[in-house]
Amino acid sequence: MGSALVLWALLYYNQIMTVMRRAADRPVGYVGSAVMLNAKLQAGQPLLKVLAMTRALGQPLTEVGVDPEVYRWTDPGGSFVTAEFRGGKLLQWKLERPAPRPPPTPPPGLRARLKIKGLWPTPRAAPP
Predict the structure, then answer these.
(1) How far apart (Å, rounded) are the C-alpha atoms in residues 94 and 15?
(2) Can you give the pTM of this predicted structure?
(3) How far is CA 117 from CA 2, 108, 120, 122, 124, in A?
(4) CA-to-CA distance for 94 and 101, rounded, in angstroms?
(5) 3-state secondary structure of 123
(6) ω into residue 102 within 30 of 0, thus cis?
(7) SS3 sequence, 106-119?
């Protein structure tokens, strides 16, 4: 029985060290895709599992030792997931995306110049 407990403790320690080693190689609060992270999160997941999914430590938004703990992971597009943990378990999370940028407007006269050259798409008539 004692050797089984030691084996379990060593396996758990190895898992923690592997997750932390991977997280040490990435910037704090970075995730490849906040939308994918949002899809994978489930209430009750332990913080260690979330760290394994993101492969990065979250940017802390609360003081150290305060319960609940709040962390944020941001992706290159500006979307971010804010997650709240109580007792090391995921309580709730929220995905926030930046406002979409309007498409750029062409400079004045560009549309006319492109129409003359035949590069501007013209609406086609419906077939009879």
Answers:
(1) 27
(2) 0.71
(3) 83, 16, 8, 12, 17
(4) 22
(5) coil
(6) no
(7) CCCCHHHHHHHHCC
Amino acid at 54: T
Cβ atoms 74, 80 nearer than 8 A: yes
List the structure tokens of 68.
Answer: 């609940």
- Look up residue 44 and give its two tokens: 């009750």
Torsions phi, psi of 81, nearest 5? -115, 125
- The one-letter code for the residue type at 1 is M
By residue count, the chain amounts to 128
- C-alpha 30/C-alpha 37 separation (Å) is 11
Phi/psi of residue 37, each to 5°?
A: -60, -45
Alpha helix segments (H runs only) across 1-128: 2-24, 34-40, 47-54, 110-117
pLDDT digits (tens, 9 = 90+) for 67-116: 899 999 999 999 999 999 999 999 999 999 998 878 777 677 666 666 66
